[in-house]
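Q: Could you write out the predicted structure for this multi-component system? I'm mainly interested in how the pieces pack against one another.
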Amino acid sequence: MECVVMAGDHNGAAPMNDEIAHGVAHGEPSILVFDVNETLIDFESMNPLFQRVFGDARVMREWLGHLFMYSMTITAAGLYEQFFTLGQGLLRMLGDIHGVKVTDSDTEQIRRGMLTMPAHPDVEVGLTRLADAGFRLVTLTNSPLDPGGRSPLEHAGLAHFFERQFSVDAVRAYKPAPRAYHLVTQSLRVPPASCFMVAAHLWDTMGAQSCGYTAGLITRPGNALLPVESLPRPNLVASDLPGLADQLIRFRR
Amino acid sequence: MECVVMAGDHNGAAPMNDEIAHGVAHGEPSILVFDVNETLIDFESMNPLFQRVFGDARVMREWLGHLFMYSMTITAAGLYEQFFTLGQGLLRMLGDIHGVKVTDSDTEQIRRGMLTMPAHPDVEVGLTRLADAGFRLVTLTNSPLDPGGRSPLEHAGLAHFFERQFSVDAVRAYKPAPRAYHLVTQSLRVPPASCFMVAAHLWDTMGAQSCGYTAGLITRPGNALLPVESLPRPNLVASDLPGLADQLIRFRR
């Protein structure tokens, strides 16, 4: 699936196809800001852990939903705790909810899992295409960087594509808090309109757009558009990164 | 299950049982602020709708998780849309994710469902006990008030227990954003320490505590504590409202 939506379409019932993508048609954006978790690397690789502990691999999605929700919760409340520690606590919380024993070995395994997820198979092709087209590539992730070893991106063999890696850990506020996105633009000393967020999560594209970025959604399994007219829709939508890359390259010309 | 946790225990690995509940032992709190959805009224009443549309009642929990997460998302992004409209859009989003057709009749039914959920069976007994003990009772809900008819609380036959009903709609910011909790204390002209949040969701107790409230968690099915030492735990925990009422009455003396 590929479709294009008008940028800044916060109010209208714009058609989801065959529109020129405003904001990506005038030489901008020049900088692509990539989310990492699920966008570039594959959370489904942790399914066997959830199958083993809970007897049901679908609990992975439940855990991931809680992980995003509680990262937003603590940010709204003005608190902070690192992503992996939060993920480990939530695994224990889900154990209580499902009446399943979660051991120290399980929580250690999920921490290791979050650090060592493989790249989605379409990612290398897409990143190569975008780098060749002259885009500057950076990342902005909810995960802390380099916690005593290689980052998730290094583990996945993708780090060499990016000129900078940013983590929300530097501002102690999770996406979609504005100061996460502003961290990137302020650090690079560029205006938000130069930046295009690439994410598999709509909450990430909405946050970026609210800070003046344009944004594209990769509709990986479990992700879709939210048809509420008053809320921003992604400027571009594709089912994989090469598809999004082709749109970006086409509309930028 | 009943257990009591020290108030303000943000850092220690405090035992979860047999502790005196600080902050509820000195004549305070005098005002109990009740969450409504799931805390007082029963979302499981919408299971048949999800069974019919998705062939799986468990999709209700997935929808509810998305509803909370996207209410936090739009608040973080500085945006706002009413709770029921968001819920209707998310039903369509889940239809796309699951490859299921969601009709206008389905979205109208979920709006009606959100307005007309029944009270949990333990609630009337618990509220009566707390009112008799002299607590002032108010509500603070993510739902808009009285959208052209009776509020969810009136439908559930519970409205007469409360001296005031507050909605986040008045501040266009969803819980756990601080200005939702501050709406109550500022409107009542009381300090946060006079207020005790009663909720079935940990993200709600965490938000309230971060604003200076004390708070109690009702661990209805699907809800549990989050064992992360740096994050606030509820001051009181019980599996139903009468259990929480008994603790509040005991510790306030």
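A: Regarding packing and overall arrangement: The first strand of chain A starts at residue 2 and ends at 4.
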